[in-house]
Specification:
The structure holds 2 protein chains of 2 kinds. By secondary structure, chain A is mostly beta strands. Chain A has no helices and 12 strands. The chains are: A mainly beta, B mainly beta.
Chain lengths: 113, 115
Amino acid sequence: GDSVTQMEGPVTLSEEAFLTINCTYTATGYPSLFWYVQYPGEGLQLLLKATKADDKGSNKGFEATYRKETTSFHLEKGSVQVSDSAVYFCALSHYNQGGKLIFGQGTELSVKP
Amino acid sequence: DAGITQSPRYKITETGRQVTLMCHQTWSHSYMFWYRQDLGHGLRLIYYSAAADITDKGEVPDGYVVSRSKTENFPLTLESATRSQTSVYFCASSETDRGLNTEAFFGQGTRLTVV
């Protein structure tokens, strides 16, 4: 079945450092790919998404490119802030499945001043 | 208030008791979902619903029951709670646009402890 694998955390960075969180997936067909973020004590929020190969999703300085050839959707940010500290989830869903999401295990990011 | 709300936010119950977690959304989204979040597993789908009176099992449905008599409500019931059901439960809703998935909106979660 379909699955999503993320790099293990926690990831600890200093403010203004470069961030990469790796995400790879296994799926049939052409799923849509998502990054969700969960701030402490809150539910998940959509950070960015891409619906087809070579699409780049971006939001709040974060970017991820849908790479069909490597089945990857790595999250990057050029300069992280303390306020980016959260848990990040990579997820996929398929066309016409009503938004059912398959999640990776999550990567906790801690940014120190 | 507009949005998706879950209640209660925190619940402690005893093994063997029945407990119901509530979820209410104000957008009239067709789709609603229940996920559980456990360390090392991310979020796993328990049940989902495509419309009122239409529900289907997800990845981990055993021990849970859902209903959806109204579009806006999607309660999750643990018929006889077990310690393995200690988790954080998230409800979500979404709509599709010509089959493509739009954003899923999540509630703030219910932290359930079974003792």
